[in-house]
Write a structure and sequence with these properties.
This protein is α+β, with helices and mostly antiparallel strands and 187 residues long. It is 34% helix and 21% strand. Helix 2 packs across helix 5 and helix 4 packs antiparallel against helix 5. Bound molecules: heme C.
């Protein structure tokens, strides 16, 4: 079935109107119209505890998008790990603006910093890099956090044998690790 001349003209007309509407809308889009303001929560180095909360612009005429994910009505993005993100905001004319947001690592607590210093001075060079002795790399934060009970067993209790093998490290240094463990072995 072929379309009549009238239908064809109607089609052209529709296209022209659509094109005009599009260009008209785009002409009014300037990035300055959408001024993105956010509040950022940093993340734990091993868990996704970061978040980006858009504080402006808000309201039903805006939609929000994280990286290449689909647009959403919600202006909060949760469970984000450390890294760089792109937030895009779109208004109801289809105008958009983007902003690059970085999520950093939260600051470690003092007992973890002290423990890290002990491990770095007494457990390297045996425990450094991906093929560190016993598969244990003391420079890798998440490994230290996950293996706290093995650190306790070997470097504090000396079970089944002490670490380092030549004998436990000085009491004052062990106390720093004990303090961190008793504090909940947190980052
Ligand atoms: C001179 C080298 C050397 C030093 C220094 C050393 N280690 Fe080890 N470590 C080893 C070797 C070799 C192994 C693997 C054999 C074993 O488990 O005994 C190992 C294994 C381990 C393991 C994994 C095995 C397990 O029991 O889960 C942990 C955890 C560990 N060491 C903790 C430590 C800590 C903490 C320190 C510092 C206080 C330390 N080591 C210092 C050589 C060393």
């Amino acid at each position: 079935m072929s379309i009549s001349n009238n239908q064809q003209w109607l089609l052209y007309l529709c296209c022209l109107i659509a094109l005009y509407a599009c260009t008209k809308d785009n002409a009014t889009c300037t990035n300055a119209n959408i001024n993105i303001q956010v509040q950022v929560n940093q993340s734990h180095p091993c868990n996704r505890t970061g978040s980006i909360k858009i504080i402006s612009p808000l309201g039903p005429s805006y939609q929000y998008k994280l990286n290449e994910l689909p647009y959403q009505e919600r202006s909060n993005f949760d469970s984000l790990s450390v890294g760089d993100y792109h937030i895009t905001v779109k208004d109801n004319h289809g105008c958009t603006n983007s902003k690059k947001i970085s999520i950093d690592t939260v600051k470690p607590n003092a007992t973890f910093i002290a423990t890290q210093q002990v491990l770095n001075s007494y457990c390297t060079p045996c425990h450094i890099g991906s093929n560190g002795s016993g598969g244990f790399d003391v420079t890798h934060v998440c490994t230290v956090l996950n293996l706290w009970h093995r650190i306790e067993a070997r470097a504090i209790l000396g079970i089944p044998t002490p670490m380092p093998r030549t004998g436990l490290i000085p009491v004052s240094e062990r106390n720093k690790i004990i303090h961190w463990i008793n504090n909940g072995h947190q980052y």
